[in-house]
Design goal:
Two copies of one chain form a homodimer. With 247 residues, chain A is an alpha+beta fold. Chain A is built from seven helices and ten strands. Chain A has two domains: 157 residues, Nucleoside Triphosphate Pyrophosphohydrolase (Alpha-Beta Complex), CATH 3.90.79; 63 residues, Winged helix-like DNA-binding domain superfamily/Winged helix DNA-binding domain (Arc Repressor Mutant, subunit A, Orthogonal Bundle). Chain B binds a DNA duplex (30 and 30 nucleotides) through helix 6.
Amino acid sequence: MQHPVRNFNPHLSVDCVVFGFDGEQLKVLLIERPGSVQKSDRNKRYKLPGDLIFKMENLESAAQRVLHQLTGLENIFLRQFSVFGKPDRIPEGDDLNWLEHSTGVDINRVVTTAYYSLIRIDKSKTAKELLHNASWHNVNALPALAFDHNSIIEKGLECLRMAIRFEPICFELLPGRFTVRQIQILYEVILGQQLDNRNFRKKLLKACYIEKLDEKQSGVAHKPANYYKFNKKKYIESRKDLLYYNF
Amino acid sequence: MQHPVRNFNPHLSVDCVVFGFDGEQLKVLLIERPGSVQKSDRNKRYKLPGDLIFKMENLESAAQRVLHQLTGLENIFLRQFSVFGKPDRIPEGDDLNWLEHSTGVDINRVVTTAYYSLIRIDKSKTAKELLHNASWHNVNALPALAFDHNSIIEKGLECLRMAIRFEPICFELLPGRFTVRQIQILYEVILGQQLDNRNFRKKLLKACYIEKLDEKQSGVAHKPANYYKFNKKKYIESRKDLLYYNF
DNA sequence: ATTCTTTGCGTATTTTTTACGCTAAGTTTG
DNA sequence: CAAACTTAGCGTAAAAAATACGCAAAGAAT
């Protein structure tokens, strides 16, 4: 990823917290920094996928570019959730050295715009990910990361948690067809709380944009579940005049 | 506001969408740009309060600084809601000229971090605001603003609207003591919808952090209403274990 | 054949929301 | 000074949603 230096804006970057769901746990995609990392950094060899942006590039385009290079996917679900711009967020020393060395620019401070991204783990091209030393990590058991990337993930998770309470964006994490249980586990993992399966089912299926398919699971060691799919069009329509507030 | 140029980071700014509530309408605080604005800009002479940030300054501190200078208030309620960083967001021509002239720096692109801020209109020092050519404008009838500031306000309003659905931050817009009706009107203005006064009251007063005071209105042409206050401590406590999700 | 797990339908109870009716307490009007 | 007007604030009845469970059914595993 050594681009011609003159095209980069050395002050601006994007970082992506890429969430994935393997059916059991919520995962985050991390990059292992190559090469010149010294001893003191041994326990910080992972970082978020991200990059400086080109001089004439949109922030969101930069995020899409990073993710496309990493996973091969296009039009990934992305949501900007915060900016991290403390003057000292890239501490002097190894991290700064590494960054200056790999970009070839003197850096005063880098402000990074953070996005979270939801992808279907099975869709992303594992080969590509491996090419970039990327790997999936359980969001509840992350290593110490470079820069302030642990804080970024934490905040991203908080925003995701907030978001799924009011819009069913978690379908972005599931395959096109899914069972009720799959969604329930996903909700349980993100919210960090067990839910009653019968009540969850009732609540979910009341939504007009969850459509029952004519397909069933097979090969599972219990009664096979029906598959459903998410109808985005109906969802958007149903939100047209939603009023709601709480104290 | 002509600071010594060398202390500024010419690539980074903050802009604040300052909301206020006058009892009837939601207002936004706008600055009238002084001096050298040419004819073609006549209809864009207003902008959001904002500034470039100092080289070693935190983003949020910069926002607080801008608002302190403007209103005289400290510890203002601030929430970062978005970054605006399109390469062309400050169009060439008059706007860029104005900015380059007033900062004395060649600017490639300025990424601005946008905050919305909630203040009690009566608390802000009107004299200071006038000193900075600031004035309150009805959020539903804004003039054409400089740069992309109209979009910034629009997005800020959207975020505020989203936020008040789940946390009662709108108390930041009201005086320390208030009547049920005042809050209701505020909700109606922000949500853009009329609400039934009896049901609104029930819903509001069920919240344990709304405390009835021993004071009543006087001098109104109808039955005087009781005053209430918002107990922040109780609010925070009550949120400790709130689980909630919707489809 | 028995056990085990999850599915998926159902029921009963409580809580919340919604849609109103109506009296009370003040000011303003005539 | 009484009547009109306005918002406050309590209440009720019906509908909808949330909660807490029971339980039979469909498969795989033993």
